[in-house]
Amino acid sequence: MVARIKNISAGISLSAVLLGILAFTGSPAAGAILVPGTPVSTPGTVTLAGLDPVYSELVPFVSDNGGFGGTLISSVYSDPSTGGMDFTYQIEAATGYTDSIHSVSVDFYFGYSTNLDYVSGSGVVTYDSAVLSLAGPGDYITLDYSTAGIAPGDTSDTIVVKTNATQYDQEGDTAFIDGGGVTVNSLEPAGPVVVPEPMSLGLLAAGGVICAARRSRRPI
Questions:
Q1: Is the peptide bond before 87 cis (omega within 30 degrees of 0)?
Q2: Are 118 and 159 in contact (CB under 8 A)?
C-alpha cells in the first residue's frame, strides 16, 4: 500500500519541409522524445540557462514503511525559445534511513509533448532509463534508478521535462517506490498547448501538398 501525502515547389524535399515545421512550431527539441512504452536513456546535455523561473516548491516525504524519506524540489520554468513550460524535479534523499529510492513516477503529462533530459552534475545520481505509461503524448513518466538507487544522503540530478504547455498547476503527483512507497503533490502542465505560428501552419499545409503530389505520381 502506498501512502499519499499531499505534457512550395516540387523541388523541395519532404524532409526539408518537416525540418522547417519542427523549427517553427515551438516544439521542445532538447533531450529525448519519449515514446509510449519504450524505455529511453537521455544524454544529460540540457541546461536551465535561458529559462525564466516561474515557481518552485519543496515537499518533504517519508515512505509508508519508514524505509526512506527526503525532499522533492519541483519547479516550473517558462522557455522563451519554445513558448512552453518546462518542469524540473530533483530528489534529495535524507540521511537516517536504510533504503534507497529505485523508482520515481511523475504525472500528469497526457496531451502534452514530453522531451526528457537531466542536468548533468546537478546531483550525484541519475536515472538509468525513463518510459511513458500510455499511448499518445505522455501521462505518467516513470524513471528507473535500479542500478544505484538514490541512497540516503544522495541528491539526484535535476530531471527536466520540456513541454508545449502554456500553464501549470500544483495538482500533479510524484510517487517514490522501494519496498515501501509514498506519493506527494508536485507541479504539472496545464492549459492549452503552444499554438504554431502562421508560418508553421503554412509549412504543415505544404507538407500535406507534397505528400499528396508524391502519391499521385506513383505508378498504378
A1: no
A2: yes
Alpha-carbon span 187 to 169, nearest angstrom: 6
Orientation angle between helical segments 14-24 and 198-217, nearest 10 degrees: 160
The CA distances from residue 146 to 56, 69, 150, in Å, are 27, 17, 9
Q: What is the pLDDT of residues 168-192, one digit of tens each?
A: 999 999 999 998 999 999 999 999 9
β partners of residue 160: 88, 117
User: The domain spanning residue 117 has which CATH number?
Assistant: 2.60.40
- E-state strands within the chain: 3-4, 32-33, 52-62, 69-78, 85-93, 103-107, 115-119, 129-132, 141-144, 158-162, 165-178, 180-193
* pLDDT digits 0-9 by tens, 189-211: 999 988 765 544 444 444 444 44
Residue 15 included in any domain: no
Question: Which of 44, 56, 52 is CA-nearest to residue 80?
Answer: 52
Which one-letter DSSP state was computed for residue 5?
Answer: -
**Domain residues for 181?**
3-7+28-193
